[in-house]
Specification:
The complex is a heterodimer of chains A (about 110) and B (about 120). With about 110 residues, chain A is mainly beta. Chain A contains no helices and eleven strands. In chain A, the strands form two sheets. In chain A, strands 2, 4, 5, 6, 9, 10 and 11 form a seven-stranded mixed beta sheet that branches. Chain A has a four-stranded antiparallel beta sheet with strand order 1-3-8-7, with no helix packed on it. In chain A, a hairpin with a 5-residue loop joins β7 and β8. The relative contact order of chain A is 0.33. With about 120 residues, chain B is mostly beta strands. The chains are: A mainly beta (about 110), B mainly beta (about 120). Chains A and B meet through β4, β5 and β9 of A and β5, β6, β10 and β11 of B.
């Protein structure tokens, strides 16, 4: 099993450009999450989904949008990238609240 | 709402010495507690978790943690560390049984730096 796969692994964007990060899981998990990781701040929840067709805001949702059209996929969009969105983005999925499975991350730089 | 505090941003320790990484949490409801490890340039891997039952939880790579409800703590320990344990360690909390969203709230992390 691949688990949780994130694409791309690296990306450099210019300020104002848009992009979509893809997260795919093959474990039939109901719950999926997007976090960003910044030095000294741990992981902060951007958006999450409790099932296909549902999304909800997390701790730091501004500047991001998400969609969960299929159960196995959770997309994170940046409509107009800003330097403050330079970060490492992690996707995770879970079957219940007994722990997550994480992807390997996407390192995004906005210049 | 839950929150997690990891007071130590970095813990230097010599190889084969014992180590304790501290984690305190706050919550108005029952919680589940977790420790994750992140090796350089990798994702997060689950070390151990407390859901219920025995307050002493054993995880992978010789780590263990003890849930102390009265002190709202979940400190991580290892009796003898190796160079390969050098990594960042994150404590996390989620709502306990019956939680609706399964959201994990993370601490800011502790960098364990093992020196030869």
């Amino acid at each position: 099993n691949a688990g949780v796969t994130q694409t791309p692994k690296f990306r450099v964007l210019k300020t104002g450009q848009s992009m979509t990060l893809l997260c795919a899981q093959d474990m039939n998990h109901e719950y999926m999450y997007w976090y960003r990781q910044d030095p000294g701040m741990g992981l902060r929840l951007i958006h999450y989904s409790v099932g296909e067709g549902t999304t909800a805001k997390g701790e730091v949702p501004d500047g991001y949008n998400v969609s969960r059209l299929k159960k196995q996929n959770f997309l994170l969009g940046l409509e107009s990238a800003a330097p403050s969105q330079t970060s490492v983005y992690f996707c995770a999925s879970s079957r219940d609240n007994h722990g997550y499975t994480f992807g390997s991350g996407t390192r995004l730089t906005v210049v | 709402a839950q929150s997690v505090t990891q007071l130590d941003s970095q813990v230097p320790v010599f190889e084969e010495a014992p180590v304790e990484l501290r984690c305190n949490y706050s919550s108005s409801v029952s919680v589940y507690l977790f420790w994750y490890v992140q090796y350089p340039n990798q994702g997060l891997q689950l070390l151990l978790k407390y859901l219920s039952g025995s307050t002493l939880v054993k995880g992978i790579n010789g780590f263990e943690a003890e849930f102390n409800k009265s002190q709202t703590s979940f400190h991580l320990r290892k009796p003898s560390v190796h160079i390969s344990d050098t990594a960042e360690y994150f404590c996390a909390v989620s709502e306990g049984y019956g939680g609706a969203t399964n959201k994990l709230i993370f601490g800011t992390g502790t960098l364990l730096a093992v020196q030869p």
